[in-house]
Design goal:
heterodimer, A: mainly alpha, 13 helices, B: 446 residues, mainly beta, Methylamine Dehydrogenase, Chain H, 5-stranded antiparallel beta sheet, 2% helix, cell cycle (chain A), cell division (chain A), Cell division cycle-associated protein 4 (chain A), E2F-SERTA_domain_protein (chain A), SERTA_dom (chain A)
């Protein structure tokens, strides 16, 4: 469902809903999928850049995908919305680096998902940020405990103001051979991806669930809800967030 | 060490040989296969840095069906794991490519490469050995001078046939990135090695010097958006070579025009179909393999979902496009998530350039007849490969009702993939590497 949906063309066909809702539903689910793809790519990229000598072809292709998504999001203004809602930074690159790159992917997925609806309720905004901050803390603690030196290059605990790791810098580090001990932990991207993913997402109990599936759940939630009933919808979302936090 | 179990070989009315290690470890995974120019020998390289060479059984009158069987001829450790102390980096021993040098004397020569180092190996037979040395005994130990009382003339005596592999040249320290291709030039004197960003030209005799012929590394690595994925020399014109990129383009270069071929002579690119555009467009258009036809008139490229055949005289679009596994188009997200989308499938021509072959998932491989436009999906598996049985064409069902004998897209096993295949240079004998198993299939023997 998601895979097919990634093409806008297919989307239009898939979201066969009655007129008034069509626009509302189609755009968020597309955005969601794009967001999840972005998150997935950023996690992959982060892992690439932790390796001393990543598969350059793979890294470049992922990086180009990120650039492409970034470009499209900039065009349709999604970046700006995120930008305004996040810590108030203006630089896109910095946004990529601080808010997405260092946060866990699924967390980010939630955040972005919710951001689509954020205009409905400010209360909810607050709940969200609370949830997110809790999540962040949990993730940071786990991360720091599990693999301290892994984050030497970009720790989420670092002062965000000083944190300047831009996407471009990641590309740069494709070149820099950083003699870190990380290679011991990640001698192979393929296998380590999921390991780190587990740690990064902090969803130990739910590791089986891939980005796509999470997203599918989200989108199905989104489509079953009606825009006329924002309250229920938000509760639903709240519930999903809770589930994710708990798991 | 490998323990080979072997079944009788025999392809399309196939024959098959399964040469596999029963003790399967990561190191046993076959990473390249290549026939020599006569087809008499077949070399495989694996993740453990070993090269195994198979030799074709000689024709015998009383057992004509045995023709086509390949037996182990020689096994040697080509590359060892290394450590680059300056970069604090482990260099894998995995053999990325093997290329045979056309035979010029009794010995066989091949080039094998891992990520960084290319080696020239000599494989030769010995059926005589010198005997009767004065200072050494039969086992090679020095004799006590007191016991030497007579002077002897050493002589060659026949012995059991022995196949020796000796490293003749080691071409190292020329690649910063991972070598993905090597290609022997038609002058038989030079070869090239391509990594992600550069291509070097070597003389087969000279190891301490190479010429950089392509360099696409941007001064600022932040600007890197494209890498070299494969490269090959023209089969007849020693000045011409092609290389493919991760953006789905192919560049043909002419070394006569300049020493550094950063400027291409021809640029093959197909305009993107807007109706198929997605975020994965670039990834799936990345070329994983490029091969000149034997005639040198065409080039074939493999991207994630298709094989394209290009006429050297037409740069704006391929003359033929074949769908390898279009049913995966709906699965690209999961394939991206599990990294399968980055798998590098190779492709090969048959001897007469009329059929092309490439691998897929679920141990399936595909053949396309360029003249009749017919195609077939075959499976390499132990169960389906009874000695001299005919390989049954397989079908993947796309949506709707699944018929008997069809396999649905959702039940394909993405861990079983056929990345490496080879086609005998003149006969219908093919070989397919499925993880640690090597299958050899032969056309129906009349």
């Amino acid at each position: 469902m998601f895979a097919r949906g990634i093409k806008r063309k297919c989307f239009d066909g898939e979201d066969e809903v009655d007129g008034s809702l069509a626009g509302f539903k189609a755009i968020p689910s597309y955005n969601l999928q794009r967001q999840s793809l972005l998150d997935m790519s950023l996690v992959k990229l982060q892992l690439c850049h932790m390796l001393v000598e990543p598969n350059l072809c793979r890294s470049v292709l992922i990086a180009n995908t990120v650039r492409q998504i970034q470009e499209e999001m900039t065009q349709d203004g999604t970046w700006q919305i995120i930008n305004a809602q996040s810590t108030g930074q203006t630089s896109l690159d910095r946004l990529v680096s601080t808010d997405i790159l260092c946060r866990s992917s699924k967390e980010q997925g939630e955040g972005k998902f919710i951001s689509g609806y954020s205009s409905f309720s400010t209360d909810f905004e607050e709940t969200r940020s609370q949830d997110i901050s809790e999540l962040s803390t949990v993730t940071s603690v786990q991360t720091s405990r599990n693999m301290q030196n892994l984050w030497e290059m970009g720790s989420p605990q670092d002062n965000k103001g000083n944190f300047q790791k831009s996407l471009d810098q990641i590309f740069e580090t494709l070149e820099n051979k950083n003699p870190n001990s990380v290679e011991d932990l990640f001698s192979d991207v393929d296998t380590s991806y999921y390991d780190l993913d587990t740690v990064l997402t902090g969803m130990m109990g739910n590791t089986k669930m891939g980005h796509c599936e999470v997203l599918e759940n989200f989108s199905s939630q989104a489509t079953t809800n009606s825009s006329s009933n924002c309250k229920t919808e938000l509760n639903e979302i709240d519930h999903i967030v809770e589930i994710l936090v708990e798991s | 060490m490998k323990c080979f179990s072997r079944y009788l070989p025999y392809i399309f009315r196939p024959t098959n040989t399964i040469l596999s290690s029963s003790c399967h470890t990561e190191a046993d995974i076959i990473s390249t296969v290549e026939f020599n120019p006569t087809g008499e020998l077949l070399a495989t390289g694996d993740k453990g840095g070993r090269v195994v060479i198979f030799q074709r059984e000689q024709e015998s009158k009383n057992q004509p069906h045995r023709r086509g069987e390949y037996n182990v001829y020689s096994t040697f450790q080509s590359h060892e794991p290394e450590f680059d102390y300056l970069k604090s980096l482990e260099i894998e021993e995995k053999i990325n490519k093997i290329r045979w040098i056309p035979q010029q004397n009794a010995a066989y020569f091949l080039l094998s490469t891992n990520d960084k180092t290319v080696k020239l190996w000599k494989v030769s037979e010995r059926d005589k050995r010198p005997e009767g040395y004065n200072l050494k005994d039969e086992d090679g130990r020095l004799r006590d001078p007191c016991t030497i009382t007579t002077l002897r003339v050493p002589a060659f005596r026949p012995m059991d046939l022995m196949v020796e592999a000796t490293p003749r040249r080691v071409f190292s320290n020329a690649h910063t990135y991972h070598i993905n291709s090597i290609s022997v030039n038609s002058d038989y004197e030079t070869y090239m090695s391509a990594d992600d960003l550069r291509i070097n030209l070597w003389n087969l005799e000279i190891t301490n010097r190479s010429f950089n012929i392509v360099d696409i590394k941007p001064a600022n690595m932040e600007e890197l958006t494209e890498v070299i994925t494969a490269a090959e020399f023209h089969p007849h014109h020693c000045n011409t070579f092609v290389y493919s990129s991760s953006k789905g383009t192919i560049r043909l270069c002419d070394m006569r025009s300049s020493a550094l071929c950063d400027q291409h002579a021809k640029f093959f690119e197909e305009p993107e179909d807007p109706s198929n555009r997605s975020f994965f467009s670039e990834i799936i258009s990345s070329i994983s393999d490029v091969k000149f036809s034997h005639s040198g008139k065409y080039i074939m490229t493999r991207d994630y979902l298709t094989i394209k055949v290009w006429d050297l005289n037409m740069e704006n679009r391929p003359v033929e496009t074949y769908q390898v596994h279009d049913y995966l188009r709906s699965k690209l997200c999961s394939l991206y998530e599990n990294d399968c989308i980055f798998d590098k499938f190779e492709c090969v021509w048959n001897g007469s350039d009329s059929v092309i072959m490439t691998g897929s998932y679920n141990n399936f491989f595909r053949m396309f007849d360029r003249n009749t436009k017919r195609d077939v999906t075959l499976e390499a598996s132990r169960e389906n490969s009874k000695p001299r049985a005919i390989l049954k064409p397989r079908k993947v069902c796309v949506g709707g009702k699944r018929r008997k004998d069809e396999i649905s897209v959702d039940s394909l096993d993405f861990s079983k993939k056929i990345l490496h295949t080879a086609w005998h240079p003149s006969e219908n004998i093919i070989t397919v590497a499925a993880t640690n198993n090597l299958y050899i299939f032969q056309d129906k023997v009349n």
